[in-house]
């Protein structure tokens, strides 16, 4: 009886060993699976050049935020996968476990964002600017009139700003859209009188469209501190990302990326 069960055990062990080898590197497959589980999902909204955007006819997300996060990930031995969502879905995505990291030129000081997710160290600072057509007479944000329409992105500091102007009766309409590219189009078409946008992003647009647009007046609104964010309480990941960012700054890689993306 004992012998029989031993034989059975041996046979089972052999079958198992064979099955493993038949997979042609079962351990490798296991490794891949483990890697897939370790992949962190970064959510962003990719119409915000030069922070994150896609090029015509291409789904690949590129930009400063992508290069920076990938460099941080490489430094910390992490693997990232990027997901393009609407801006006002980014925080809910982390809250509902659909993403691990937000990196989207997001101002960590705005509204109650910091109550919903945990932000890392500031990696870029920004202010709002008013973008208008080159032939516009609008002198700046304080010169807007009751008949005007201004566009910005929904759920952003700019979106809140134009909404507040509308609520205060200072403009006719705050047009809040899902994509920055649509805000620019509405301005080009004359559907709105201007676009309220982060200065570095307006600059990037003007680099390509100086013939059709310009900034009106000076920066305004609350000074912004952009940071990546993780789910509330995920201090282990946040510490890694902050350490990676510090290492990037130290090594000069951060400056290299600023040089590459902000002209
Ligand atoms: N800095 C602004 C904010 O935090 C706008 C960010 C928009 N980012 C984007 N990837 N669309 O509200």
Show unreliable segments. 18-36
Computed CA radius of gyration, to the nearest angstrom: 25 Å
Mean pLDDT: 90
CATH class of the largest domain reads Alpha Beta
The CA-CA distance between the termini, in Å, is 81 Å
Number of domains: 2
Number of strands: 13
Main sheet summary: 5 strands, mixed
Bound molecules: arginine
- The amount of beta strand, in percent, is 25-35%
Helix content: 40-55%
Tally the helices.
10
Principal-axis shape equals globular
Helical/strand content category: alpha/beta
CATH-defined topology of the largest domain: D-Maltodextrin-Binding Protein, domain 2
What does this structure look like?
The protein is of the alpha/beta class and 263 residues long. It has 2 domains: 121 residues, Periplasmic binding protein-like II (D-Maltodextrin-Binding Protein, domain 2, 3-Layer(aba) Sandwich); 95 residues, Periplasmic binding protein-like II (D-Maltodextrin-Binding Protein, domain 2). It contains 10 helices and 13 strands. The strands form 3 sheets. It has a 5-stranded mixed sheet with strand order 5-1-6-13-7. The protein has a 5-stranded mixed sheet with strand order 10-9-11-8-12, with helices on both faces. The longest helix is centred in the first third of the chain and has 21 residues. The site of arginine has 17 residues, from loops. Arginine binds next to loops.
């Amino acid at each position: 009886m004992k012998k029989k069960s031993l034989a059975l055990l041996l046979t089972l062990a052999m079958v198992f060993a064979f099955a493993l080898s038949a997979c042609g590197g079962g351990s490798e497959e296991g490794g891949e699976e483990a890697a897939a589980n370790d992949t962190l999902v970064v959510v962003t909204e990719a119409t915000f050049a030069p922070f994150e955007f896609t090029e015509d006819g291409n789904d690949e997300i590129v930009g400063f935020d992508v290069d920076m996060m990938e460099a941080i990930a490489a430094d910390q031995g992490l693997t990232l996968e990027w997901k393009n969502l609407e801006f006002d879905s980014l925080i809910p995505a982390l809250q509902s476990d659909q993403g691990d990291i937000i990196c989207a030129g997001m101002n960590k000081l705005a509204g109650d964002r910091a109550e919903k997710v945990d932000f890392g160290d500031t990696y870029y600072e920004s202010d709002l600017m008013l973008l208008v057509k080159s032939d516009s007479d609008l002198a700046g944000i304080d010169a807007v009139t009751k008949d005007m329409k201004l566009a910005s992105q929904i759920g952003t500091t700019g979106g809140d700003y134009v909404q507040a102007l509308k609520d205060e009766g200072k403009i006719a309409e705050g047009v809040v859209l899902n994509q920055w590219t649509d805000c620019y189009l509405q301005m080009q078409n004359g559907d709105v009188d201007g676009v309220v946008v982060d200065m570095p992003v307006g600059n990037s647009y003007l680099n390509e469209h100086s013939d059709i647009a310009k900034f009106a007046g000076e920066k305004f609104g609350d000074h912004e501190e952009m940071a990546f964010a993780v789910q509330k309480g995920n201090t282990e990941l946040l510490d890694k990302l902050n350490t990676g960012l510090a290492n990037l700054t130290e090594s000069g890689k951060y400056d290299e990326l600023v040089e590459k993306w902000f002209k």
